[in-house]
Amino acid sequence: MSNYIDITVIEYDRERNLRAEVAKLEQHRKLLKRRRLSIDIPTVAVVGYTNAGKTSLIKALTKDASLQPKNQLFATLDVTTHAGILPNALNVLYVDTVGFIADIPTTLIEAFRATLNDAIDAHLIIHVCDISHPDYVVQHKTVIQTLRELDIPSSKLESMITVFNKYDLLNQQTSDDQQIDEQDNNDDEEVQEEEEEEEKVILQKSISDSNIENNNRLYISCKTGQGLDQLLDVLQKKLMIASDRVTCEYRVLQGGQLYQVLVNGDICTIENMTVDEHDPQFIRLKCLFSKAAYAKFQARYSGASKYQISNDS
Ligand SMILES: Nc1nc2c(ncn2[C@@H]2O[C@H](COP(=O)(O)OP(=O)(O)OP(=O)(O)O)[C@@H](O)[C@H]2O)c(=O)[nH]1
Ligand SMILES: [Mg+2]
């Protein structure tokens, strides 16, 4: 009986501390959101079950040394924002979020939802799922269900990228098992049977995945870096669309007025700059504009269209 009371008191204290912590963070969160909205940088919310590797992913993509992944539940207790640069030179903000969990105390649900809500305002969502976890299918479902309850527009759920993280552990488990098998018995047939069994398990996993959502699935490892280049590629394509951006190419005189505005102004991002092969006085600029900035630029420099050589809008 006394044990029961002790545990209840500890849980009550823990919950009270968490509630106080969440309330304190709410103010900070609102401030960050205002700041994010005031600057026109595409944002990516990284969500997922607790301990799936959300913080690790952002650390791998941004090389932000201040991020501290930890092997514990709720290592991240606040929504934080981290700057990164995509391969096309576009600046991006990654929003690290509080992990989801199936049996969250009911008194905390609203506070966690509020914390997550502004992350969901991001242009794009990455859902990190730990594929090495035995319950990863259930964890995946819990996250999807919670996102649906948050009333996120269906288009945002459809464009969501799902990354199955810790793929290195899955491979390792398979090769560890194989090594043990090879030592324990030299019977090739048995080893082959085991391998086939492993393949079947992996196949079953991927079949059950396909039942749970869209096709934007990637297998990655934040530890080894596997799949991260592919993720960045998918991410930048989707983010250009989600954040309403266009790519335009110009051929302008080096050092001229248009060159100065495009290269030295803060109206666009220069993805690529090459010397014109026919006339080295001219430079080819591949520029990424937000649609709003592009409209402003066209209005201000109406003659610029003469120098435009392509436009994907
Ligand atoms: N082997 C392996 N471990 C990983 C990988 N990614 C993350 N981890 C480990 O998983 C643990 C949890 O990582 P975090 O990045 O803190 O996870 P999180 O989703 O941010 O967790 P919470 O903030 O608690 O919700 C850490 O010990 C990481 O080092 C991976 O690709 N492979
Ligand atoms: Mg974290």
Q: Tell how many strands the DSSP assignment holds.
A: 10
Strand content: 15-25%
CATH architecture of the largest domain: 3-Layer(aba) Sandwich
Order of helices and strands: HEHEEHEHHEHHEHEHEEHE
Structure description:
Helix 1 (2-38) runs parallel beside helix 3 (106-120) and helix 6 packs antiparallel against helix 7. By secondary structure, the chain is of the alpha/beta class. The relative contact order is 0.11. Helices cover 50% and strands 20% of the residues. The protein has two domains: 2-241, 3-Layer(aba) Sandwich (Rossmann fold); 245-311. Magnesium ion (MG) binds at residues 54-55, 75-76, 96.
Descriptive keywords:
313 residues, 10 helices, Rossmann fold, disordered N terminus, binds guanosine-5'-triphosphate, single chain, 2 domains, alpha/beta, four-stranded antiparallel beta sheet, 10 strands, binds magnesium ion
Topology (SSEs and partners):
Elements: H1 2-38, E1 43-48, H2 54-62, E2 80-85, E3 91-96, H3 106-120, E4 124-130, H4 136-149, H5 154-159, E5 161-165, H6 167-184, H7 188-212, E6 217-219, H8 228-242, E7 245-253, H9 257-264, E8 269-275, E9 282-290, H10 291-300, E10 308-311
Parallel strand pairs: 1-3, 1-4, 4-5, 5-6
Antiparallel strand pairs: 2-3, 7-9, 7-10, 8-9
The structure holds guanosine-5'-triphosphate and magnesium ion.
